[in-house]
Automatic annotation (TrEMBL):
Protein name: Phosphatase
SUPFAM superfamilies in UniProt: HAD-like
Stored InterPro entries: HAD-like_sf (IPR036412), HAD-SF_hydro_IA (IPR006439), HAD_sf (IPR023214), PGP-like_dom2 (IPR023198)
Record-linked Pfam families: Hydrolase
């Protein structure tokens, strides 16, 4: 197998995650001003991304902060996860699956507590790559350098052998600053071409 490694982001890359407008709908339903949900729950969202709160604590904070009963909290969290999980980028996932015999594969994602179980149930990312590294499990978010070095360590690869594919420019730039190659995801054809070029250089 090639010494090359390719690491993918999830949301906006392996998952198609358009904005659904669920926050605005809940703000209208609760007669809150625009942006109020993120203003009131911003600390919860941040804590959830680094695993500083549990899923039960998130639900309790949502319920208490917004004054929701159990059924409303269930609906709120369902809408949150519907946007978060999006739909499969089937073409890219199929391509990545075919790469298993050609290179080392990993995933590095800024995530939210509970994401592994839901994404594994829906998309089986654990079968797609050797390591799935989630920020809510490691406590480290991109573009912090340790997120990338930890991922390389878990995959037993050198940063210089890796191509990192993400839809946010700051995350790609951080990877490049550590000696990784980076590709800013915009569409599948360009991402696939970048991977093929990366692998060809190792041939």
């Amino acid at each position: 197998m090639s010494a090359r490694c390719v690491i993918f982001d999830i949301g906006g890359v392996l998952e198609i995650t358009p904005v659904t407008g669920w926050r605005a709908k809940w703000e209208g339903r609760l007669e809150l001003p625009p942006g109020a949900i993120d203003d009131r729950l911003g600390e919860v969202w941040s804590a959830g991304e680094t695993g500083a709160v549990t899923e039960l604590e998130v639900r309790a904070r949502v319920s208490g902060t917004l004054g929701l009963d159990a059924a409303q909290t269930d609906a709120f969290m369902s809408h949150l996860w519907d946007e978060y999980l999006g739909t499969a980028n089937a073409e890219l996932i199929s391509y990545v699956r075919a790469l298993r015999s050609r290179c080392t594969l990993g995933i590095l994602s800024n995530s939210f507590v509970g994401a592994r179980e839901l994404e594994e149930e829906r998309y089986h990312f654990g079968e797609l790559v050797e390591e799935v590294v989630y920020s809510h499990e490691t406590g480290v978010r991109k573009p912090e350098a340790r997120a990338y070095t930890l991922t390389c360590s878990r995959l037993a690869v050198a940063p210089g052998d890796c191509l990192f594919v993400d839809d946010l420019a700051a995350n790609v730039a951080a990877a490049q600053s550590l000696g990784m190659r980076g590709h800013l995801f915009t569409h599948n054809a360009a991402a696939i071409a970048a991977v093929e070029n990366h692998l060809a250089d190792a041939a």
